[in-house]
Amino acid sequence: MKNFKLPSICLIVSHKEIPKKTEEALKAGVRWIQYREKELSRRETLYYSYKVRELTEKYNALLTINDYLDIAILVESQGLHLGQEDLPVEVAKKFFSGLIGLSTHDLKEAEEAVVKKADYIGFGPIFFTTTKKDALEPRGIDMLSLILKKVKIPVVAIGGIQKENLDELKNIGCKHIAVASGILEGDVIKNVEFFLKFFN
Description:
The chain has helices at about 20-30, 40-60, 70-75, 90, 105-115, 140-150, 165-170, 180-185, 190-200, and strands spanning about 10-15, 30-35, 60-65, 80, 100-105, 120-125, 155-160, 175-180. By secondary structure, the chain is of the alpha/beta class. The protein has one domain: TIM Barrel. The protein has an eight-stranded parallel β-barrel, surrounded by four helices. α1 packs parallel to α9 (about 190-200). The radius of gyration is 16 Å and the shape is globular. The chain starts with 8 loop residues before the first strand and ends with a helix.
């Protein structure tokens, strides 16, 4: 599992996009789904985790479960993504053998993630985002560029990533992005095709 090549595009979905939009994105070429659920109970989240796992298996794609170590283990997802307030990476590693990512918001957190042996970091928000209600102030392209230079594990840019700013990301050497509304709003298949021209 550790030798798995991290896909360039991580599509973040909730139960609202399972199964229809998630399958459309997978069919169009997305090979990494992160299931992030903030509205449902743990029981309901487990139900949708199994549903999305069926889809990622069908399309040979990577599945990351957000926040919940127990659910990641139960559905046998390949990845687990943790926030700064979640279970520590070093504790999760004792129970989960797949890829573990950690959300970071500044250089200190990014460097600590490397020490904790996270497999990759999410960094952001890069741009203004409406997807996350409690999102922090945008970190911007310059800060992302610094993180990319300083951190020697994969850096996944997140937050406000849309068609209009893909050039900016590509120009500083960003290789991995996490997207929600940029792909899920409108024509999912056409959106994926557009994103894949920049990141594939």
